[in-house]
Design a protein that fits this description.
Shape of chain B: globular
Number of helices of chain B: 12
Radius of gyration of chain B: 23 Å
Distance between the termini of chain A: 42 Å
Low-confidence stretches of chain A: 27-107
Strand content of chain B: 25-35%
Number of helices of chain A: 0
Oligomer: heterodimer
Strand content of chain A: 25-35%
Helix content of chain B: 25-40%
Low-confidence stretches of chain B: 421-426, 429-434
Strand order of the largest sheet of chain A: 4-3-12-11-9
Largest interface: A-B, 60 and 61 residues
Shape of chain A: globular
């Protein structure tokens, strides 16, 4: 992460201008050159362990263009450390990002007991509703082949397959609702803000709009008295 | 025959950071048609439809006079194989010069001098004018001709959807260039018509510029040597497109593409003028990986050489993941220069949106950062234009007044234009900075 010196927005490494305020990110990858590079090593080069359940499109790798993955000897793909944040191996000197981009912070006060659902408002079966359960709710497209059995199955809403089989995770925990992109191809958007960074859950509030593929969903929250 | 084009995929960095996080890489896809006469290029005959707005407001600031002068000049310079039709519109549209009559100079002059006398009302039914011109151009439609409609207007038309539909329905055969005079016209409409069909959009702040802009447009058409360019990109596993921009000759957003399961994205870039780069800039998000060389995409450029068929040029792009931050700090100066220009154009557009939404503070902040960007690039013209815009925003907090709208249109025009198109300068910048 590269933190913007002007507005504090957490930007992806390598970005030239801050997504939040447009300030030039002088730091990006280069300024850190001053830091002692020796402290680096433990970071990412762990072996690509067992295919992480979070990487949805992994099986598709086989079907990719001939000679696809690497120029030199390099395994097909390092699994993205998405769902379970690799707490121990954060590169030295880099601050862990706060969960939500500071764009529109402070979730509206949520009732302590509520039931919630996602409702399709555009681009799909308009009015279709998906009740959300406590814990994890997978958003994606049903596909037994790859073991994708989403609670929020948008297969019927997405004839063009712009939604990944395992696209995003909605989590309800301690009276909080969060959404996290789990490495989708086309990204997840909340209230038309910049694309969510995979692996970074963002808190939702009632009425938030989530865009996945070409499908627009609205979060509906109803208090239970 | 020498290679008719060069096609490159240039990354902002050759080395990217190997860490547990995603990394942004900018990639410039650029095609340049090699120089005019010897390079396999030959001048293509024109098949034009010129659409003149003759609404009441065209009499302001002598606009119609300048248009008539420009079109007369065009008629003088047509080659025998060229076909040009001229249409005037207001509440109705009328073909005043048919495509085969353009070589009769006396008749053309008479028709233009009499444009005042046409009984076509005083409104702005641009779609009618466009439709009449399309019909004329279609009479001589041919793949080895440059089929284009030039629309000149100074007002809001009543049927914007119809205009966009006309451009889209015909975009495979005809491109549309749109010229807006004054401040009353809808620049978003004109831009869209031009961008969707790979024509050009010109803002004309001062009527006296009309003949010059017409001339630029013609010179551009005559320099076309490569047609119907298309950049095809197949992304490697895990690579995402965050943003896409047309980067030259003009800068505008292409929207974030929805990548299908085949990981394929495609960008049409239209015709190429000899020596003028046509390019697309993608902001990619690369997944975390361990150190090593990785191919991140395959790309190809498809194009047509008139009379010599379809061609394709392929380029693969590999970058090296490394832990060494001195290496990841090295950037390609030319690519970053374009990234800066694209970012400035983006900030200007965002500031416009923020102001429209009433967020004056955010708008000024974005503009302030855009100005810093133009200063860093040493682009004096853009700095002046944006500073003027900033003053307007602070003073009136809106773009609704005539003065503010003029400043806005000027700033858009300057920011949109990719600077540094001199091929020699480009070569200099192509060298990676140390």
């Amino acid at each position: 992460m590269t933190k913007c010196g002007e507005c504090g927005y957490e930007n992806i490494d390598g970005l030239d201008y801050c997504d939040g305020c447009g300030a030039k990110l002088e730091a990006s990858a280069s300024a850190a050159a001053a830091a002692p590079p020796a402290v680096e090593p433990s970071a990412p080069p762990e072996p690509p362990a067992a295919p992480s359940p979070s990487e949805p499109e992994a099986p598709a790798a086989m079907m990719d263009a001939p000679g696809e993955p690497a120029v030199a000897a390099e395994p097909a793909l390092a699994p993205e450390p998405v769902v379970s944040p690799p707490a121990s191996d954060a590169p030295t000197g880099e601050i862990k990002p706060p969960p939500a981009p500071p764009a529109e912070p402070v979730a509206a006060a949520m009732p302590s007991h509520f039931k919630s659902k996602l409702s399709v408002v555009r681009g799909g079966r308009k009015g279709q509703e998906f009740p959300l359960e406590d814990g994890n709710n997978l958003v994606g497209r049903w596909d037994p082949e790859t073991g994708a059995f989403p609670e929020v199955d948008l297969d019927q809403d997405d004839p063009e397959a712009k939604i990944s089989r395992k696209h995003a995770l909605i989590r309800i925990e301690n009276a909080k609702i969060t959404v996290e992109d789990i490495g989708s191809l086309n990204g997840t958007y909340v209230n038309r803000q910049p694309r969510l960074q995979p692996g970074n859950p963002v808190e939702l509030k009632a009425g938030d709009e989530i865009i996945i593929g070409k499908t627009f969903l609205k979060l509906v929250v109803e208090p239970i008295s | 025959m020498a290679e008719p084009i060069s096609f490159e995929a240039l990354p902002s960095r050759q080395y990217v950071l190997s860490s547990a996080e995603n990394f942004v890489l900018y990639v410039l896809f650029e095609a340049v048609a090699q120089g005019g006469l010897g390079g396999g290029g030959r001048r293509l005959p024109l098949n034009l439809g010129v659409v003149i707005d003759r609404s009441g407001s065209m009499y302001d600031e002598r606009r119609l006079e300048f248009v008539v002068e420009a079109v007369k000049f065009l008629a003088e310079s047509v080659a025998p194989e060229d076909r040009v039709a001229i249409v005037a519109f207001a509440d109705r549209a009328k073909v005043i010069v048919g495509p085969d009559e353009i070589h009769d100079r006396a008749a053309v002059r008479r028709a233009l001098d009499d444009v005042d006398l046409l009984e076509i009302g005083g409104g702005t039914q641009m779609a009618l004018g466009m439709r009449a011109a399309i019909d004329e151009v279609k009479k001589n439609l041919a793949p080895d001709r440059l089929n284009r409609v030039l629309v000149l207007t100074d007002g809001q038309t009543y049927e914007e959807t119809a205009c966009i539909e006309l451009a889209n329905q015909n975009r495979d055969q005809i491109s549309f260039s749109a010229m807006g005079v004054g401040v009353e016209f809808n620049e978003k409409l004109l831009m869209r018509i031009a961008q969707d069909s790979h024509g050009k959009y010109h803002f004309i702040g001062n009527s006296a510029e009309i003949p010059g802009i017409f001339d630029d447009e013609l010179q551009g058409l005559r320099a076309v040597t490569v047609r119907n360019g298309r950049i095809d990109i197949t992304l490697s596993q895990g690579v995402q497109v965050r943003e896409a921009f047309r980067a030259s000759p003009e800068i505008y957003a292409l929207g974030t593409p929805l990548v299908g399961e085949d990981r394929h994205v495609s960008y049409e870039i239209g015709d190429l003028e000899a020596g003028v780069p046509g390019s697309v800039m993608l902001t990619l998000v690369l997944p975390p990986r361990k150190a090593g060389m990785v191919r991140i995409l395959q790309s190809s450029f498809h194009y047509e050489i008139p009379g010599a068929g379809q061609h394709e040029a392929k380029v693969d792009l590999a970058v090296e993941y490394t832990l060494d931050r001195t290496l990841t700090g090295k950037v390609n100066g030319r690519v970053m220069n374009l990234v800066d220009q694209v970012s400035i154009a983006k900030m200007q557009a965002r500031a416009e949106e923020e102001l429209k939404a009433g967020n004056v503070e955010r708008a000024t902040r974005l503009l302030g950062n855009a100005i810093q960007g133009t200063q860093r690039l040493g682009n004096i013209k853009a700095t002046q234009a944006l500073t003027g815009l900033m003053d307007q925003v602070k003073k009136t907090q809106t773009f609704e007044t005539k003065a503010a709208k003029t400043t806005l249109l000027q700033a858009q025009a300057v920011v949109r234009k990719t600077q540094m198109l001199d091929p020699e300068a480009l070569k200099e910048f192509g060298k990676p900075s140390e």
